[in-house]
Amino acid sequence: SMSIKVAIKKMNLQGLRKKELKVNELMVMKKNRNPQLINCLDSYLVDKQFWLVMEYMDGGTLSDVISKTYLCEDEMAAISQECLRGLDFLHSNHVIHQDVKSGNILLRTDGSVKLADFGLFAQLTPEQSRQSSVVSTPGWMAPEVLTGQPYGPKVDIWSFGIVGIEMVEREVPYWNETPVLPQLLIATGGRQKLWQPNLFSSCLRDFLSCCLQRDEARRWSAKELLQ
Q1: DSSP state string for 56-68
Q2: CATH architecture of the domain covering 60-226
Q3: Residues 6+ apart with CB under 8 A from 190
Q4: Which partner from 16, 64, 130, 188 sits 20 to 30 angstroms from 56, CA to CA?
Q5: Strands annotated E in the chain
Q6: Known active-site residue 99
Q7: What are 45-102's pLDDT values in tens digits?
Q8: Structural domain boundaries of the chain?
Q9: C-alpha 130: how far from its chain's center?
Q10: How far apart are the C-alpha atoms of 36 and 103, rounded to whole Å?
Q11: What is the pTM of this model?
């Protein structure tokens, strides 16, 4: 028999809200099969834990990679393309990821890149095309989330723009400041640019600028960025 390596995510089922998140994650993973999304192979209830069995990505997270090495622009472009394909697929199916960050992007040594961690997903309906609950990780949050506006799928694009800055500068903007400060700075229009833009191509600078438009209407969609 063939043996394959898998990853198992173990989650405690204490508290109803958490329980909903876990089931939400499973449903999203089972419903949205795509080469750029982590595949859920199975799930089990073990004692009071919920186990998600997922495909194993031997390259670790993008966050791990960034901490160990400098990426060249071609590598950044290849990773970005795969992530945007995954986001375009989700957004086309009216799903917002809501927690796009380097720690939720997984890599394999064969070059494949996949989005993971669907615990905070929002499924939009024709009646409700905007979300208003504040979830996601502070350093990657879009301005409209921080200021409490209803928001749509483009929050994921802002977050991916922050991932772009991470790939270039190997840290999240403001990450060394206190947690409150990044939120305040983003909400009030603080810096979301590269420290030394002239070291990089105009193509990369334009890409980040299209992702990090404070005005959601002017921010590009995943589909537009892929073109």
Answers
A1: --TTEEHHHHHHH
A2: Orthogonal Bundle (1.10)
A3: 174, 184
A4: 16
A5: 6-12, 40-46, 49-55, 60-61, 95-96, 105-107, 113-115, 122-123
A6: yes
A7: 888 777 878 889 999 999 999 999 999 999 999 999 999 999 999 999 888 888 899 9
A8: 6-55, 60-226
A9: 18
A10: 15
A11: 0.82
